[in-house]
Batch of 2 targets.
Target 1
Amino acid sequence: MAADREDVEDTTERAGSGGAESGDGSESGGRGPGPRAYQADGITVTFDARVCRHAAECVHGLPAVFDTTRRPWILPSAAAPEVIAEVVRRCPTGALAYRLADGAAEAPDRPTTVRRTSDGRLLVRGELRVTDATGDVRETPRAMLCGCGRSAEPPYCDRSGACGEHEG
Ligand code: SF4
């Protein structure tokens, strides 16, 4: 799975901090913490920079839609909603999510699965409710959790342990 890739890109140091420029898709959510929404006919994509760990499934999977050199960096009008949804589901951390125009959000995997990568991350998919060290609760169909105990943002992986050391 590409979440194990070593060619990790820093996609959202840029993408997540950009301004709310207009484009084919409209962007909302402000500059504060919390997900931003990017809308087009048929789909709304949301992005939560706080949990993105730059596995870059999005930019590799659909560069016409996910382009960190552009503002807005997510352009949901650039592909069919079903195609975007398929790529969003590859995001291992759940930083990306979507809702289709008919109201359908991503259906969580059943049964819930947990997979440990070779470098120690725990990739979890299912109907998840994750509580972090501050008590913040996040409901998500996907999460990348720390498997080495060295994360400063438990239970999420922050790439500071063995997984981070392997990344160039
Ligand atoms: S796939 Fe998800 S975690 Fe990876 S860079 Fe894109 S938004 Fe971030």
Note: The beta strands are 26-28, 36-40, 43-47, 96-100, 113-116, 122-131, 137-145.
Target 2
Amino acid sequence: MDMFDSFVNAAKDACDKAGKMTEEVVAISKLKLKCSQTKAEIEKAYGRLGKIVFDCKKSGVENDELVAVCVAEIQALIDQLEADTDQLMQLKKLIRCKSCGYANPIGSLYCNRCGAKLDPMPEPADEEEAAPGEEVPAEEAPTEEPQAPEEPAETAAEEPKTEE
Ligand SMILES: [Zn+2]
């Protein structure tokens, strides 16, 4: 009876782990997609703002309200992108530096690029006994784009079969 129970539990555990792994992969792809979409939205919003400012300057009519609406819209998108990027980093076991955006390997206390103190991870995934220090190196973070450590175009193209 005990043997059987532990067998069942082990099987269940393995299933849970497999399920979690897949969920994680799906969540990562979805977030990546969402981030690249948000980045595209931000670019578009910058374009709109530029057009508004251009028209204002050209016609000599100030339209601060419209500019403010646009700025607020862009800020909201940036905030959303930051939140999603943080979530993505967490799933990928990376910690994003709040001051420079660099993706640091989990377990880092200070940013490897700018030296700022990093927020500790809220829940360091307890479902796997990952060896600390053997995580993926944070090589994906481009140096000149602190706010966007992901490459949007590539990732989106790599995942053609995303549901929805
Ligand atoms: Zn930093």
Note: The chain has three helices and two strands.
